[in-house]
TrEMBL record:
Protein name per UniProt: ApaG protein
Pfam families: DUF525 (PF04379)
Domain of life, per lineage: Bacteria
Domain ApaG: start-end pairs: 3-128
Stored SUPFAM superfamilies: ApaG-like (SSF110069)
Organism the protein comes from: Mesonia algae
């Protein structure tokens, strides 16, 4: 599990290989990831949007951004957490993801970024 804390917000990531799929006559490698966002600060915060950079071993990258996560903009109170699962397809058995969440502190009304630690995507059959 990969973890990182930014401004009292702890991000934990766990990944899993889901299999290979044929899409548009090309093999794609499917990965799922489970993210827990834990509020270790003294203020309630809300996740408003996300930014992802997804790279594969062939140096192809894709940017994914949008509002919330899986259709939600969770409010996370001090000491609480929000967990969600999602996934991605890449064109090689290895890759990585990194990014950030845009959040709002309800006490100060300030917007801030929470870094998502870079994590690897790897198909177990491709490892030595």
């Amino acid at each position: 599990m990969i973890q990182q804390v930014t401004r009292g917000i702890k991000i934990s990531v766990k990944t899993s290989f889901q299999g290979t799929f044929l899409k548009n006559y090309k093999i794609h490698f499917a990965f799922s990831y489970r993210i827990t966002i834990e509020n270790q600060s003294n203020d309630s915060v809300q996740l408003t949007s996300r930014f992802w950079k997804i790279k594969d071993a062939l140096s192809r990258s894709e940017i994914v951004q949008g509002e919330g996560v899986i259709g939600k903009k969770p409010v996370i109170k001090p000491g609480e957490s929000h967990t969600y699962s999602s996934g991605c397809l890449i064109t090689s058995p290895f890759g990585s993801m990194s990014g950030h969440y845009n959040m709002v502190n309800f006490t100060s009304t300030r917007k801030f970024k929470v870094l998502i630690p870079s994590f690897k995507l790897s198909a177990p059959f491709a490892l030595n």
